[in-house]
Description:
Elements: E1 2-5, E2 16-19, E3 29-39, H1 41-47, E4 64-68, E5 74-78, E6 87-91, E7 95-97, H2 104-107, H3 110-124, E8 132-135, H4 141-152, E9 156-161, H5 164-172, E10 177-180, H6 187-195, E11 199-204, H7 208-216, E12 218-226, H8 239-244, E13 248-251, H9 263-276, E14 284-289, H10 293-302, E15 308-312
Parallel strand pairs: 8-9, 8-11, 9-10, 11-12, 12-13, 14-15
Antiparallel strand pairs: 1-2, 3-4, 3-6, 3-15, 4-5, 5-7
Amino acid sequence: MRAIVMKEFGGPEVLRVEDVPDPTPRPAHELVTVTRAGINYADVHVRTDTYLAPVPLPYTPGNEVLGTTADGRRLVGLTRGGGYAEQALLHRRTSWEVPHDITDDQAITLALQGQTAWHLLHTTAQLRPEQSVLIPAAAGGLGSLAVQLAKQAGARVIALASSAEKRALAQELGADTTVDSTPADGLADRILTAAGGPLDIALEMTGGQVLHETLAALKPGGQLVLYGYASGQTGDLPTRPLLEKSLRVTPFWLPQLYADRDALPTSMNALIHAIREGQLRPLTGGTHPLAEAPTAHRTLATRTHLGKLSLAPRR
Length: 315
């Protein structure tokens, strides 16, 4: 089969198509022919050797897969690598059958980005009606879902996005107000002005100065929910503002829930129900052939797309 193989860390050019052996069957796993492989910021961290877990080389990236079994079932699931390929193995505990009324484009948004958005809001932040919540990258794959889920929960949604087109989309999806996320200088003031005051909760996935500006926009006793560092700047949390305002900081990483028998089935069922009820509209940002994985990574880095990016290995 064909797969993307990384033999070194670096820029998008290290993502090369090669012929590799088919996956070896394993107990408790389903072999699928991959129809979509989700592209996520985690894959960028894997490529640049900044991922939270160590990655051995050579390596096939991709932690989110939609595929078809030999008996014709469609499964969407989470992997620990290996997704950028024509075939993949999905563990039965972290994969779910896709109902016939959910499309491929809808399904590929759910396993990683959809469930992360759901657990950021409901498990980690424990969002309540009328609370104000800041959502970054609000027109991206995860952010666009988080905007809709937060609004569905009755929150007041303040959406960050880098262009007028993206901010208009965030409002269309339910955001109460939007804020230009660039430049980072003065971001806290822009948030406070748009929100009419400090925030109850802020999601944060950029790092660097954006992290500091986001902290400054929280009210005393507010909560910062950390789920990434897309800028590549991890740094240290500043102690003084945390203490001055008694802020709560809660990190979240989806793989910590992989062993939980209830958490992921609960969120997947809720997401599918929301799509069926017309309460959740996943956005497709573009589907690329396997050989265009470098192009897709460049698009992700420039943040010019709207919604979810994916690969179609058999295209």
